[in-house]
Amino acid sequence: MRVLVANLGSTSFKFRLFDMELETLIARGSIDSIGATESGVLIEIGSNKQRLTCRVPDHANAMEMSLEIVEESGIHCMNDPGDFAIGFKAVVGGKFKTAVIVDQEVLAEMERLSFIAPAHNVPYAQAMRLFKQRFPSVPLVAAFETGFHAEIPAAYQTYAIPHEWTEKYGVCRSGFHGASHQYISERMRVLAGNCSRMISCHLGGSSSLCAIQNGISLGASMGLSPQSGLPQSNRCGDIDPYLVPLIMRETGMSMEEVFQVLATKSGLLGISGVSADLREILDASEQGHKRAQLAIDVYVAEIRRYLGGLMLRLNGLDALVFTGGIGERSSLIRNRVCESLQEFGIEIDNRLNDLATEEARIDSKGRRVQIWVVPTNEEIIVARQTVAVLETQQCS
Predict the structure, then answer these.
(1) Residue 35 region, left (φ>0) first, then alpha (ψ -120 to 50), else beta?
(2) Contact 327, 373 (CB under 8 A)
(3) Which residues contact 315 (CB under 8 A, 6 or more apart)?
(4) Where are the extended beta strands (E) located within 137-205?
(5) Phi, psi angles (nearest 5°) of residue 39
(6) What proportions of the chain, in percent to the nearest 5, are helix, strand and coil?
(7) Tens digit of each residue's pLDDT (9 = 90 or more) over 61-81
(8) Residues 21-51 pLDDT 10s
(9) Contact in structure between 225 and 177 (CB atoms under 8 Å)
(10) 159 SS3 class
(11) Taking the complete model, does pTM exceed 0.85, yes or no?
(12) Are 148 and 178 in contact (CB under 8 A)?
């Protein structure tokens, strides 16, 4: 079977196409500025790269165009829909926690909860509906980011709210970045062997930490929504809930306007006033920009706060893993997160840290906790989940 894994942003579309017989990547691509007058398209098939500029009105068109280019290259998918599926790296599914076949009930639940994840659920639900209309014979699977966290113990899932809200409305700490944390868990079994207690640090435009014991999530820094946990590139992370009515009273903004700011103009962007991109914030900090430095300080402090709590949850630590765009590329952030933690068995080798590319172990020799840099592969996890769901349907 061939599986196209779709990763959607509000105006962007990225995909990877896998042949799942040997789990080989056969094509990948991206389209940006969807809905604008001009969109940039990049499709890679082997060593061949195709770039063009054209108008792409919606995400369904983006998928359709990508598949047409792939078909024209000789890689056929659409002529055998029984051996082709699309897996979506979906985010909030409400009562649907793991990977499921997309139907009207799933779409309705995603749309009902769009206000929790406006940057994610809205484009995903729209694209799924459009694609179901145009290609009704192609199975669609939504692999929700909460799936890996399904077994978190109740003590780590439950908010201190009226229990009726928890039971009736499903309000709980769901956790996200499940595909990334699951990949790290599986890959570390290969790289590090008997590391039963690990913390996966997925640090990027969207960031979260996850405590993993024997391959099972015991909790993550994100809670009910992707706006929670660590400061994100432009999302606020954890805040006191009474911040919202305070700002409404002081500014005259509506609740919707306040939440829009918290979801799009906060996080590292809000603190620094420079950028949502940590690379630009780091550059500004080196030039003496005080708010840029403050943004870095807050980001590191919050990572360390969650790191400490998750270490206690695991009753110790065998491995600490950095992944995601920032986790994989920023030796400075890795160094600052691990600074002065020698008493906990955590110490980075500065030379190994500075040289780290791809998969690399970077802890000081003789320290109890292994420290790794491991590039994530969320897409292969989504592809595997897609195949598993379809095989289960065929057997039932």
Answers:
(1) left
(2) yes
(3) 197
(4) 140-142, 197-202
(5) -120, 140
(6) 45, 20, 40
(7) 898 889 889 988 888 876 666
(8) 999 999 999 999 988 999 999 999 988 999 9
(9) no
(10) coil
(11) yes
(12) yes
